[in-house]
Design goal:
Helix content: 25-40%
Radius of gyration: 18 Å
Number of strands: 8
Number of helices: 9
Structural class: alpha/beta
CATH class: Alpha Beta
CATH superfamily: Alpha/Beta hydrolase fold, catalytic domain
Strand order of the largest sheet: 1-2-4-3-5-6-7-8
Largest sheet: 8 strands, mixed
Distance between the termini: 37 Å
């Protein structure tokens, strides 16, 4: 049964337009400003206090800015390569270091976060190339594939699955496993849950269409490195998938899980009743988010220490 606390917080998020004295929720259309959206997100992120339980160290990953998020007593040789969300058009170390700290603290594994290329300035395959570059950089730095978990939420969850498939297809040694929270796995955005759940979820109306098209650019959305559900899904490492029943990405997550499992890929699927998009990163605001975060961190820790 869904907690009252989650209903309260989710209700506040869904009706956030009222705090801006607007009667209707935001709709993403031709007047949408990517620059203004990024500015709002960045300004809100700057007001967040850093978690003192982790050390943040800036680094350079080829030409990308990155940050190590390091909890106390984390092993030196194991790492979460975290790919942030943001609809393919936003997000950075600034916006996500607080979220990533929760995964690092909960699993007691250090995380590497990085600023990959964003659409619409840099459409596919720029973001995927950057994610692959970050993984290869870790290998060059001496990290074993078996000591790496790739994880991400939302757009980062999609990129997590895409980069896994790209790593396999290129014949590169695969990481130990992956965590994908609320991915879109078919970028045509034609699954039924985009229709049945859009009023229940928290994404701005039509954002899934506009933002995804920015990322796709002139490419075919059916390409397997763009839409992971279209790929052949055998010979992949264990994947942990998490989604809420009120998400527009519900069907995409479940359909990917079914296809991957049928192909022999070890899949852990967690479907949470009444939950919204990428809800685990809202931990510790309500019980379901805390439990989902703990579940994910347990998977990360137990998978990485299984040498």
């Amino acid at each position: 049964m869904q907690s009252l606390r989650s209903k309260l917080f989710i209700g506040l998020i869904k009706h956030r337009h009222l705090f801006k004295l607007k009667l209707k929720p935001e709709v993403v259309d031709e007047s949408f400003s990517v620059e203004e959206f990024r500015r709002r997100i960045d300004n809100a992120s700057r007001r967040m206090k850093p978690d003192k339980r982790v050390k943040v160290e800036a680094t350079k990953i080829n030409d990308m800015y990155g940050e190590w998020i390091i909890p106390k007593e984390a092993p030196e040789d194991k790492v979460i390569l975290y790919i942030h969300g943001g609809g393919f058009i936003s997000g950075s170390c600034l916006t996500h270091r607080g979220h990533v700290a929760k995964f690092a603290i909960g699993s007691q594994i250090k995380a590497l976060l990085f600023d990959y290329s964003l659409a619409p300035e840099h459409p596919y395959p720029a973001a995927l190339d950057d994610c692959l570059s970050a993984y290869l950089w870790l290998l060059e730095e001496g990290y074993k594939p078996s000591s790496i978990i790739i994880a991400g939420e939302s757009a980062g969850a999609t990129l997590t699955l895409s980069v896994l498939i790209a790593i396999r297809d290129r014949g590169i040694s695969l990481p130990r496993g992956a965590v994908s929270i609320s991915p879109v796995t078919d970028l045509t955005c034609s699954a039924e849950s985009f229709i049945t759940n859009y009023k229940k979820d928290i994404a701005p109306l039509n954002s899934w269409s506009v933002w995804t098209k920015y990322y796709i650019g002139d490419s075919d959305p059916h390409l397997p490195w763009l839409s992971p559900q279209m790929a052949e899904l055998s010979n992949l490492p264990p994947v942990f998938l998490c989604v809420g029943t009120h998400e527009i990405h519900l069907d995409d997550t479940i359909n990917f899980a079914k296809k991957a499992e049928a192909a022999g890929t070890p899949i852990t699927l967690r479907v949470w009743e009444g939950m919204i998009h990428a809800f685990p990163i809202l931990s510790p605001l309500f019980p379901e988010a805390k439990e989902a975060m703990a579940d994910i961190c347990k998977f990360i820790k137990t998978t990485l220490i299984k040498e």
